[in-house]
Write a structure and sequence with these properties.
The chain contains eleven helices and 86 strands. It is mainly beta. A hairpin with a 2-residue loop joins strand 19 and strand 20. Helix 10 packs antiparallel against helix 11. Belongs to the neurexin family.
């Protein structure tokens, strides 16, 4: 019958009831199978008293003749007591038994069947792991085959000329596992054209078959149980099916019933019977490492022999131990790393090992035969003689009398059994000892041998990798009790490969402190989409750059409506990945450049489009770059500056000269551009050209999406969270409260909850039917510090984890056999609970569940007590602004203001640097030098006296191989100056002349040659007459200046070379290449004799160590890079370098002007871009910023 439900009660009027039990079923009273719920629940919860009824609906139902209830636990104050009721209905069964050489062939009327539709249903049971269940083929290679291989079902469908694949090629589809267990398994195949539904038991898969045709060209016959016709052209090894088929229907036709009635449509091949023969094999299950089966041999026999079959997932475990009587040794047969090992040990002799087989822990049945007689030992594995040993010596081999299968009893039993690798967990059958088959039913009844923790007359092996709970292509492996996921090369991590190792957007990478570069993006996080590689351009906002294959300028000629041109664009990501990326972004755009000459975009008579483009929605778009999504509009039409005011696009003027309609497409729902079509270049002198830029997206709508919870009673509610098998939740929070619930979702008994339990503890609580569990992360510092903290939790089939910030994650393993489905049915509450108690006070940001973002801001707009957005990002992210950059709050996020830093970039981390060629310089004039008229005052102070410096801070880095060199020079209208030079001997000198009437102070660092081509760092701090200098973070000196305390009437800052004559000392003039006038006397003057020099040398070395390098590379270049910062005029230092940038901009603008003048021909249009690009590149070679 078909059993649909069971119900239990305790013993009437007693204290006897069962609290948990197992349910087993069989159709023959032998070879029992255990019923499981949710693929992992072994036991049923029973009664809590004698009177109440506990009812279970069985989904799926059971088709069986026998049921067995096995009590596991009962009322400790009573005994086992059960009243049982079984619910079900009658079950009709038509059965045929095939012996491995027989089959059925059904020939049908060709007019009765559709060539594109097939429905096949059947049930089967077998002990054999291989066999053809059905086969139908045609003349051209079309075929449909259902093949049982290694206990799995393979459905092969082919349409076209392709031959049947060999056993080593990729199979179309595989379902099921361990189907050779002598239990009934149901199969349903539904084919409509190329759409196929394939179902085995409770596992279903939908797919499209291979081939060009929507129908299969097949012969009008189908065989079941084999491929009997010798003329069939099969090219793969196959065996006939050996077992039973039940209720076999082909397109509604009862095949077994026709065979019973010996209808002419059915051809019976071989011996076929219409009742299912029962197997005489009795399996036994070793449930735990403590399981064993002890069977008596015949003590004193001169031969030791045993045969058996086993199947397991474990790599190691004892299979057999037997004591050798005369030699006082023993024989061990065990698995180690999936290989069979035979170990023979004797006192005083070195143990001998024999290894056989490989991969024997694959869940398949393997046969073992062991024989030891006199000095001859042999092992046969799966019919292959593995090894023969003659190491037993001349002694007779006598059995010790007892064979221990699967393990050893406790030492208290006095056994000499040895078990080096632990007990065996798996199934055995067909056990023979001393050439006699063991009756395991007698063992079960206690009349033969001894055992512990066994399940006799049942093989309880299960495939824990079916279904495969390893996500994103993770490879599943298993042992008897659990499964493991190998996530290598998947881009995901975790116990089930659920969590992506990549960020969801460039914005996320940016706020981890990453700079511009190529990154893998996983737009849907833990969702089904794979990560892909793209470029992130980290500016003030993070730009995502997605390239395609059509970035070159393409010219189009000779097209018309009958012969259109179509250009297709393939991106580095799939459309699904692109859509997820675009949806996540704040803004996306794509530049479409379209040039035309006598080529229109639309027909002005009837408005019919002549050129168009297609986006991701596969809809024709007739608006062009820069326009809103209005039909046949361009930028010039919106701005009112088209070359012909009658039209909305320049190209529609249809002039015999080059013009263009160019701009950015920014309507996200239509992006990216996938195709462009041009049809109007067939007339004389008609031509078009286009160029499509990469897809550009900026921002991340979810990253800064936040809500502020102002009262404990406030919360946001969302639809029920569905994370039955895998659930991950991540978010940021900040608060000053000591506790509060972040998130809660309830079911009837199941629930999940994440909360701030105390100032330093975040807790994840959940229940999936096995009782509530809690895991907490405790921090050494408090979480309620008004800083952003990141929480990530995950629950899957294997474990539950929680991690906060960079603290070590906490993990709670899932029970081996228990409920696995998280079944929730209430609304999801964020920031509070349904009871409006223990609500959260603070901000929650970037909330994601299974990779999907929740729009907190949109929901907060209509929820009392909750405000959209949250300020105060700089308190957490301000540390990302480096080198003096200031964090500035934004409505969504923050930015780094680098105005007062000598660095640039999104985090003020990119040095502002310049390459100086021979004779080059950068000059910034603080004040212009006025020419005085006759009526003007002769005192410069009247013009420049307001620019005085009593203190300054200067930082810079440089690299050069030239000496002497001028690094930095600050001049004054009063002939005062500051110079930093490298002297001829390679020493670094800092020269201050703060009084025009005195000689300069010189601070000399000659501890090494500074013109060595290496990068050196200089920091100068002056506070009036006290000077502090640091070189390369290790040489530090403090000097008192005697020439003065102020640098008056600042004139200019010079880097690289002094371009005009000035009154400086000889060393500075030499380093700066100053051309002296004839008025300056040089004869007999020692320019350095009057300088006050403070020399700091490293005297630990020899004199030669401080000489300039004799073979130093002479180069006409110096690099002055990085931090050039003066406290009072740091802005001006940056502006000094910007002078050259400004010159390049002017050059670029001049080239742009030339470009606009030369668009009269196609060649000019196409070449101007190359010319401009070449010109810019040449300028970049001279000064690279």
């Amino acid at each position: 019958m078909e059993i649909t439900a069971v119900a239990t009660q305790g013993g009437y009027g007693s204290s006897n009831w069962v609290t948990s039990y197992l349910l087993m079923f069989s159709d023959s009273g032998r070879n029992w199978k255990q019923y499981r719920q949710e693929d992992s629940i072994w036991g049923f919860s029973g009664n809590a008293n004698a009177d109440s009824v506990v009812y279970y609906r069985l989904q799926p139902s059971i088709k069986a003749r026998f049921l067995r209830f096995i009590p596991l636990e009962w009322n400790p104050r009573g005994r086992i007591g059960m009243r049982i009721e079984v619910f079900g209905c009658a079950y009709r069964s038509e059965v045929v038994d095939l012996d491995g050489k027989s089959s059925l062939v059904y020939r049908f009327d060709q007019n009765s069947l559709s060539p594109i539709k097939d429905v096949i249903s059947l049930k089967f049971k077998t002990m054999q792991s291989d066999g053809i269940l059905l086969h139908r083929e045609g003349q051209n290679g079309d075929h449909i085959t259902l093949d049982l291989r290694r206990g799995k079902l393979f459905l092969l469908i082919n349409s076209g000329e392709t031959k049947l694949p060999s056993a080593h090629t990729l199979i179309n589809l595989t379902l099921g596992s361990l189907l050779d267990d002598q239990h009934w398994h149901s199969v349903l195949i539904q084919r409509l054209g190329r759409q196929v539904n394939f179902t085995v038991d409770v596992h279903r898969h939908r797919f499209h078959a291979q081939g060009e045709f929507s129908y299969l060209d097949l012969d009008y016959e189908i065989s079941f149980g084999g491929i009997p016709a010798p003329g069939k052209s099969v090219s793969f090894p196959h065996k006939n099916f050996h077992g039973c088929l039940e209720n076999l229907f082909y397109n509604g036709v009862d095949i077994i019933d026709l065979a019973k009635q010996q209808k002419p449509e059915i051809i019976t091949m071989g011996n076929v019977s219409f009742s299912c023969s029962q197997s005489q094999s009795v399996p036994v299950t070793f449930l735990s490492p403590r399981s064993y089966l002890a069977l008596p041999g015949f003590s004193g026999e001169d031969e030791l022999s045993a045969t058996f079959q086993f199947r397991t997932w474990n790599k190691a475990g004892l299979l057999l131990f037997s004591e050798l009587q005369l030699v006082s040794g023993g024989l061990l047969l065990f698995l180690n790393d999936g290989k069979l090992k035979l170990n023979l040990y004797q006192p005083g002799k070195f143990p001998s090992d024999i290894t056989a087989g490989v991969g024997l822990n694959d869940g398949q049945w393997h046969s073992i035969s062991l024989s030891a007689k006199r000095n001859h030992l042999s092992v046969v594995v799966d019919g292959q003689v593995a090894s023969v040993a003659s190491s037993l010596g001349s002694e007779q081999t006598y059995s010790g009398g007892t064979y221990y299968f699967g393990g050893c009893p406790d030492n208290s039993f006095g056994s000499k059994c040895k078990n080096p690798l632990g007990g065996f967990q798996g199934c055995m059958r067909l056990i023979s000892v001393s050439n006699k088959v063991v009756d395991l039913i007698s063992v079960q009844q206690g009349s033969l041998g001894n055992f512990s923790d066994l399940q006799i007359d049942s093989c309880g092996i299960t495939d824990r990798c079916l279904p495969n709970y390893c996500e994103h292509g993770g490879e599943c492996s298993q042992s008897w009790n659990t499964f493991h996921c190998n996530c290598a090369n998947t881009g995901y991590t975790g116990a089930t490969c659920h969590n992506s190792i990549y960020e969801q957007s460039c914005e996320s990478y940016k706020h981890r402190g990453n700079t511009s570069g190529f990154y893998y993006i996983d737009s849907d996080g833990s969702g089904p989409l794979e990560p892909f590689l793209l470029y992130c351009n980290m500016t003030e906002t993070a730009w995502t750059v997605i390239q395609h294959n059509g970035s070159d300028l393409t010219r189009v000629r000779n097209t018309n409506a009958e012969n259109p041109y179509a250009g297709f664009f393939e991106y580095v990501a799939s459309m699904e990945q692109l859509q997820a990326t675009i949806n996540l972004a704040d803004h996306c755009e794509q530049e479409l450049t379209y040039y035309c000459k006598k080529s229109r975009l639309a027909n002005k008579q009837d408005g019919r489009p002549l050129s168009w483009w297609v986006g991701r929605t596969n809809e024709t778009q007739t608006y062009w770059g820069g326009s809103l999504p209005d039909p046949q509009k361009c930028t010039c039409g919106l701005e009112g500056n088209c070359i012909d005011s009658q039209y909305y696009c320049n190209c529609d003027a249809d002039r015999n000269e080059w013009t263009n309609d160019t701009g950015f497409l920014s309507y996200k729902e239509h992006l990216p551009v996938r195709k462009i079509v041009v049809t109007d270049t067939g007339r004389p002198h008609s031509e078009a050209a286009y160029k499509l830029g990469p897809l550009l997206c900026r921002g991340d709508r979810s990253f800064w999406n936040s809500a502020s919870f102002n009262t404990e009673a406030s919360y946001l509610h969302f639809p029920t969270f569905h994370g039955e098998l895998s659930a991950d939740v991540s978010f940021f929070f900040k608060t000053t409260a000591s506790s509060g619930v972040f998130l809660e979702n309830l079911g009837i008994t199941d629930f999940i909850r994440i909360e701030l339990r105390s100032p330093a503890v975040v807790t994840f609580s959940f229940d999936v039917g096995n009782g509530p569990f809690e895991i907490s992360v405790q921090s050494p510092t408090h979480f309620n510090d008004n800083q952003w903290h990141h929480v990530k939790v995950e629950r899957n089939m294997k474990e539950a984890t929680i991690q906060v910030d960079q603290l070590l994650p906490k993990t709670q393993p899932a029970p081996t056999d228990g409920h696995v489905l998280l079944q929730l049915n209430s609304q999801l509450f964020v920031g509070g609970t349904a009871t409006r108690q223990r609500g959260f006070l603070g901000c929650i940001r970037s909330l994601q569940l299974n990779g999907m973002s929740l729009d907190l801001e949109e929901r907060a707009k209509v929820t009392p007590g909750v405000e959209p957005g949250c300020r105060g990002h700089c308190s957490s992210y301000g540390k990302l602004c480096l080198n003096g950059g200031k964090c500035r709050e934004k409505l969504s996020g923050f930015s780094c203001d680098c105005t007062f830093s000598a660095y640039t970039g999104p985090f003020c981390s990119k040095e502002i640097s310049a390459y100086f060629g021979s004779g080059s310089s950068v000059i910034y004039n603080f004040q212009e030098n006025y020419s005085f008229s006759k009526n003007s005052s002769s005192h410069a102070a009247s013009f420049h006296g307001d620019m005085k410096l009593s203190r300054e801070m200067i930082k810079f880095s440089f690299r050069t191989a030239r000496a002497p060199s001028l690094l930095l020079y600050v001049s004054s209208f009063y002939k005062e100056y500051l110079s930093v030079i490298i002297a001829k001997n390679g020493s670094l000198q800092i020269r201050y002349k703060l009084n025009r009437y005195q000689e300069p102070d010189v601070v000399n660092f000659d501890f090494k040659n500074m013109a060595d081509g290496q990068l050196h760092h200089v920091e100068i701090n002056r506070e009036e007459g006290v000077l502090f200098v640091e070189i390369d973070d290790n040489a530090r000196r403090q000097v008192h200046l005697s020439s003065g305390t102020e640098l008056s009437a600042i004139k200019s800052l010079v880097l690289g070379r002094i371009s005009e004559y000035t009154d400086v000392d000889q060393e500075t003039a030499l380093a700066g290449h100053v051309t002296e006038s004839s008025c300056v006397s040089q004869a007999g003057t020692d320019a350095t004799s009057r300088e006050r020099t403070h020399s700091f040398a490293d005297h630990s070395g020899t004199r030669d160590d401080r000489e300039p390098l004799a073979n130093a590379i002479r180069s006409d270049s110096a690099v002055i890079g990085g931090l050039i910062a003066v406290v009072i005029f740091i802005l001006l230092c940056i502006a000094a370098i910007a002078v050259r940038i400004y010159q390049q901009k002017r050059l670029y603008k001049r080239n742009e002007a030339k470009r606009s003048e030369n668009v009269d021909s196609a060649e000019a249009v196409l070449k101007s871009e190359l010319n401009i690009q070449s010109a810019v590149n040449e300028n970049q070679k001279e000064y690279f910023f």
